[in-house]
Specification:
Radius of gyration: 16 Å
Low-confidence stretches: none
Number of helices: 5
Helix content: 10-25%
Strand order of the largest sheet: 1-2-3-7-6
Number of domains: 1
Order of helices and strands: HEEHHEEEEHEHEE
Length: 175
């Protein structure tokens, strides 16, 4: 018999604290839904502890996936989920895309992403740890900003604003 493995209350609380969501409407139609988790150092500590709990790994972190541990070392990362009624119109990772992502720090400095990677084959490690994502309806991206943005987005220097914008919709998510 299999026992259901659910996420801990501590992890759900951290996910709620570091995730922002916005739904954009036009008249009575949903134009887009955007949700992003700021993978801050604080959040990634809780994520790592949850990974260790679920997968029964040593707490020294040696069995934790390297990207999770390195995520906050030199860059600022966000896991981004975007839904639009026309799924194919969401092309944030494509060069020349109609969609654009920008990070703005508390002082108004603007940072373009160092990398935008679409997670096309998002497995349970993404869909279970970030239950707001649904790859059947929207697209999932990893946004990575460089070291200067990482310094600007430290928890002690909040707020930061992640802006996702296109001709379809604009969402400003503030931490």
């Amino acid at each position: 018999m299999f026992r259901e493995r659910s996420l801990s209350t501590e992890y759900i609380d951290a996910l709620d604290e570091w995730t922002r969501k916005k739904t954009i409407y036009s008249e009575l139609e949903t134009r887009a839904k955007v949700a992003a988790t700021f993978k801050s150092r604080e959040f990634m500590k809780v994520w790592t502890a949850e990974y260790e709990r679920i997968y029964l790994v040593d707490s020294d972190g040696s069995d934790v996936p390297a990207p999770a541990v390195e995520a906050t070392a030199e860059t600022t990362e966000f896991l981004l989920y975007v839904y639009a009624s026309d799924r194919d119109a969401i092309d944030l990772a494509r060069s020349g895309s109609a969609w654009k992502a920008v990070l703005i720090d508390a002082g108004g400095a603007r940072y373009d992403p160092l990398e935008i990677r679409e997670l096309q084959d998002a497995g349970p490690l993404v869909t279970e740890f970030y239950p707001y994502v649904n790859p059947s309806y929207g697209k999932i991206y990893l946004l990575k900003f460089d070291g200067e943005a990482a310094g600007a987005a430290e928890e002690t220097k909040l707020p930061v604003t992640l802006v996702i914008t296109s001709v379809i919709a604009r969402a400003e998510l503030v931490w």
